[in-house]
What we know:
Blueprint: H1 2-16, H2 29-45, H3 54-61, H4 79-88, H5 94-114, H6 122-134, H7 136-141, H8 148-170, H9 178-194, H10 196-213, H11 216-240, H12 244-254, H13 264-271, H14 287-309, H15 313-332, H16 343-362, H17 369-414, E1 422-425, H18 428-435, E2 438-440, H19 451-458, E3 463-466, H20 475-485, E4 496-497, E5 502-503
Helix pairs in contact: 1-8, 2-5, 2-6, 5-6, 5-8, 6-16, 8-9, 8-10, 8-15, 8-16, 9-10, 9-11, 10-11, 10-15, 11-12, 14-15, 14-16, 14-17, 15-16, 16-17, 17-18, 19-20
Amino acid sequence: MGGSAHAALGTADREHERPASARPAPAGRPLAAVAVAFTLAQLQLVRPGMGLGWDETVYVSQVSRHAPAAFFSAPRARGVSLLVAPVAAWSSSTALLRTYLAVLSGLALFLALRAWRGLFPVRVLALAGGLFASLWVTLFYGPQAMPNLWVAVAALTAVACFLRLGADRADRAGRADRAALWGLAGSALLMAWMRPVDAVWASLPLLAVGLRRGHRRALLVLTAGLAAGAVQWVAEAYTRYGGLARRLADGAAIQGGLDWHLAFADQLRGLGGRTLCRPCAGALPHPLLTFWWFALPPLAVLAVVLAVRARRPAATALPLACAATAAFPYLFLLDYAAPRFLLPAYALLAVPVADALTRLAAARRPVPRPVLAVLVCAGLAVYLLVQAAMVLRVAGTTTAARRSWARTAAELHRHGVRPPCLVTGHEAIPVGFAAGCASAATTGPNANTTVAGILRTARRIPVATLVPAGAAPPGPLVRIALLTACPASPSLRTRSLYPDRFSKSL
């Protein structure tokens, strides 16, 4: 791999631009422009005022003073909580948190693209960044407190740094790329910090190449970074979840079990605007919304063919291999889907696909070059229009849904359920956080208490149990909890609390 990576570096420089050492400083400006556009697009299309989602609430509550920490289930890792701590630890402003994450994700994208300089021309990297950053899933999750985008940019950086270290090994002078060493260590740590299991899947080709080719330095740095990022998660497995094997088993159970399941159709349904497809049924979205998804495999194959002809297969094949392993569990082992699950794969595909598109537009045979260029540009224009429309649609519906949680929290306050307090039942985690209350569940993946425990709590502080509008209250729990919740508030004694309305069924 080392020789191939070195060949990749030399070929890219000779064919497209001057060597990195001779390149002027402004060469990085296109990458910075993509990163800035990515940040501004997030703030304009998603809007900082969008409330926190269910998973975001769990992560943010671990460091926020606004409400007690929500139950932290086995599959989750603490990386997002630490990422948002500089803002969430002292401010409850969602707009401020969104702005902070939008700026941070733009910076992360710039650093990830910059790590590839010298391996591919800057114009290819700028196109790659634009393709990935304009994807509606990327835009939607960029300003959110969720881990998948951070795994994506970290994986993209890790592959580039690994390739650079391979090129250094092939260099007869044996010069070490210190930036690549630190970049590989830091990106591996970030991946494992955010999602340890996903980090292993995305790193499998790097580990395999490192073992086979004898890249001891790169292999040592990669494994050290992964271990450092996962050490807290592993330690917590023994202190809170009964051991590492038990935590992995519990995490798999919460995800419905890991078994052979072709989830391609599920992922396609998610691309139609469903942020979580579980259960995943219904019609597939219009082909106009998913044509780019079907274009990825042939473009990846074309990228490999072109890379082999250019005598630089490693720089193309390695990110494609990492994309395949990162996507594997979500395409073959889960019986549900969420578009964000494949963000690491999309990020790793972006550079080879952008290189293939660039070379395709510049080709002269058998189709005239101007015709190819027009076709490529037309395809990109349709892609951008579709992604912009999708992110506006998803952000709009999501914002409206999350406002209902805020309205429910306001109703809780109006009826005397104020901190310190406890919320249980339907959507208790996001509603409880919005109200400044603790949340609890007696069943399901977030079960952390019992009915008896809730009733004991109700003798000390206000307690409310939420049920979906129109559903029957869970008898004894709602009746007793609400009767004892606020002795000073007689109105609560005859009311069963619903998310958006009240019923006098008791």
